[in-house]
Amino acid sequence: MLSYGFRPFFFVGACYAALGIALWLPLFEGEIAVPSEFAPRDWHIHEMLFGYIAAVITGFLLTAIPNWTGRLPLQGLPLLGLLIVWLAGRAVVCWSAYTGWIFAAIIDCAFLVLVVAAAAREIVAGRNWRNLRVLVPLGVLALANIAFHLEAHFYGFAVFATRAGIVAILILIMLIGGRIIPSFTHNWLVRENPGRLPISFGQFDAMAIALGAIGLLAWIIIPDHRITGAVLALAAVLQLVRLGRWAGERTLGNRLVLVMHVAYAFVPLGLALASLAAFELVPQSAGIHAWMAGAAGTMTLAVMTRASLGHTGQALAAGAGTQIIYAAVVFAALARIAAALFPTWMLGLIHAAALGWIIAFGGFAALYGPSLFRARRSG
Q: What's the pTM?
């Protein structure tokens, strides 16, 4: 379990994603209470952003960086220490009404600060300069967590820090997803389905990411402004065109690759919904859940399954169980977006979304957990 970062962090991230939503429903309906200094809504948001997603990002980076740098992975006691800090963060945030908000903030925020430091050390030591840019959104995510605790304590609700955390995750998806999706697609198409191939990263991709970042920065500060809406609308078009350049429609025969294209499709969808929200045509939560339940939820599950198969020596193929959890997370995202758009049916749709989410991430833990605890298969 301590040989590679993906092993412990994918497992605990998936378990916590399922548990967090299972607790959120009765918390949302007032049936239970969490002894946290956070308001119930903020606890839910924080633990999805800085609990589950942060764990999966950590597992991915600690596994990918050795491939980028050629250095040995973080393993053994240092990896165990990082895991313990993450677990301690979940505990103190949940019981911060007893521990005090400052103590909870210090323990919880230490995790992402340590992740940034570890990633920076490995990238610099490996002289892998082009991947230093990954540290920017990762650093913003760490700062957003610090700001979340401060804003929630002094103002009651963490509004700006929430949006900053969401933007950091979206930028990571644009950067890393924009690298791995066309790469995996290209490799599979060359081998299995010759024809049109994904277009390599170029000026158009850089422009699409830059405009998306500008629009999202405006969204953090003035989400309801019409200028923000206009920039987000243009960014949505560019991201949709970018996705179309990756030949995703030609990957129907490989669900491991196809699901990444589906996940990325929620990025322009969220941008479009956030643009409509700026013009007061739809609720803000529609775009937020397109990004978080859709883009982040589906992309994390896609990366977790593929990396777990590859790094444990299994065939890169999505079996029946894997395809079921893919369908479940996409269903959960669509149901949660629909709940925001159709308030009359909101409660039923939220329950449906929660069920799909729990099946998806609980299913990952059940299907992939045993292989994460075993040594890599030879051959």
A: 0.95
